[in-house]
Amino acid sequence: MLYAYAVTDDPGPEGGAPLPRSGILPELGVERIRESGVAVIASPVPAGLLDAEAIAERINDPEWARERVLAHQAVVTALLGTAAVLPLKFGTLFSGTAALRATIETRRTALAEALDQVRGAREWGVQLFVRQPPQAAPHAAAGRAGPGAGAAFFQRKREARAAEQAAAAALDRLAADSHARLARRARAAVMNRPQPAAVHRRPGEMVLNGAYLVAEQDEAAWREDLAALEREAPETGADYALTGPWAPYNFTGGALGAGAGGGVGSG
Question: Which Pfam families did the record assign (predicted)?
């Protein structure tokens, strides 16, 4: 069985840059498997040690999952800067070398195109937080309720609902405009689902969770686009947070189409 970390350019017979000594588990080595112009970085795994059932059984153990995810990321990170890298999802497994080679062959064109896209570029993340405007206090009814009190109550509710919808639309426009301006100089860009407050733990609401694949020669200009948005932030109540650079997880083109145990093939 093979646990796969990433797809890279084929370094040729010379073998390329040295690989990390340990993989998803400390006792597992890391090797390159070359096929059809690409190389897959993988660890041979004894049957039953880290198969799909073992991962499914232990993934709910936070400490185990954290250590394994960090180990997976460490291998991917070690590859960055040495070749174009398509990181694979945590838990990408193949039943053996034959199954892996067959999968590479069926996805040869897509893998080549994805590697071309990420070559010489890095992924950056931008999150946009907006502080919530203070909620208007409900109007107190003056004096006793008169014949028109019911109509006035429902009118206030309609006005409050319209104000909420207008505020939500304004946030959507701010997020869309920010994303469009940041995507302008990127090779590719995606808007991921905003994180809830329990995850991001920052003041305000996250309205943009964007990922941007930026060519290294364009990073200075792209960072200036972000700086321009930040200069406008006091007017919009926005707070931009830059993260990265990261391995291009958002731009793998599906890579080998495997993850979380779903990539186990036959062969």
Answer: GvpL_GvpF
